[in-house]
Specification:
Layout lengths: L1 H39 L7 E5 L3 H7 L1 E15 L6 E16 L6 E13 H5 L7 E4 L2 E12 L2 E9 L9 E10 L2 E6 L12 H8 L1 E4 L8 E7 L3 E14 L1
Pfam family, one: LmeA
Protein name: DUF2993 domain-containing protein
């Protein structure tokens, strides 16, 4: 009986030591992947990397990690328009089936999903915020974007026209959709302004706009967008996604 107790105590101690070694190893691997991502994606700050699942060392032995999460606070995404970029906030990616090299210099995920946010202030930079001639001396411009409720964006339009006076912008509700690598904002309807109804299509050239997002980390691509109180939430997905290397 005494020998059995000693054996159990030894087993518990070894199990505890294994758990400690396992956690030290995963912390080291997370740091290596984070540093590599910072370099390959040219990030201003080091991203957060979490390798989930226990034990980690058995995953290493198999050469594949079950579940990896990556968080990037601020990401400058290429728009596909020359050297222009759009700032994306709080990008969070979830990777499954991640195969990696022995020194973690390269890693590829079988499947990946991600979410991020483009603030309304950032999206406004792509709207026509400068006065635009829509015909017959009528000038229009987008002066604000905000949450319109029920997944809609409220677009504030300021209109200057002969004989037309208003003390505040006219608002329209717009839908955000994805087409390829572009977020498109399209007005559901336009304001019925006395005497200016025939310019509706010209007003749409101001009220409607789009934001290209040509590249996200690892090559994940836009899937869906949804208007929220803080901005437009992006959902992205991809397969054979490169985390590093």
């Amino acid at each position: 009986m005494r020998a059995l107790r000693i054996l159990l105590i030894v087993a518990v101690i070894l199990g505890g030591l294994f758990a400690i070694v396992d956690r030290v190893a995963v912390h080291f691997a997370e740091g290596k992947v984070a540093d590599k991502l910072k370099t390959t994606e040219n990030l201003a700050t080091t991203p957060d990397v979490s390798i989930n699942g226990f034990p980690f060392l058995t995953q290493v032995a198999d050469g594949e990690l079950d579940d990896v999460e990556i968080g990037i606070k601020d990401y400058e995404a290429a728009t596909g328009n020359g050297g222009e970029h759009v700032r994306i906030d709080d990008l969070h990616a979830h990777m499954k089936g991640v195969r990696f090299s022995g020194d973690y210099s390269s890693a590829t995920a079988a499947d990946a999903t991600g979410t991020a946010l483009i603030t309304y202030d950032e999206l406004l930079r792509k709207a026509k915020s400068e006065p635009t001639d829509v015909g017959l001396g009528v000038m229009a411009r987008v002066t604000g974007l905000s949450d319109g409720g029920n997944g809609k964006i409220k677009v504030a339009l300021t209109i200057q026209a002969p004989g037309f006076k208003t003390s505040k912008p006219v608002s329209v509700l717009s839908s955000a959709t994805v087409r390829g690598n572009t977020v498109q904002v399209h007005a559901d309807g336009l304001p019925q302004l006395p005497g200016l109804q025939f310019l509706e299509n010209r007003f749409r050239t101001v009220a409607d706009f789009q934001q290209g997002i040509a590249r996200l980390p690892g090559g994940i691509r836009l899937d869906r967008v949804r208007a929220t109180k803080d901005g437009v939430e992006i959902t992205a997905k991809g397969s054979d996604v490169s985390l590093a290397g």
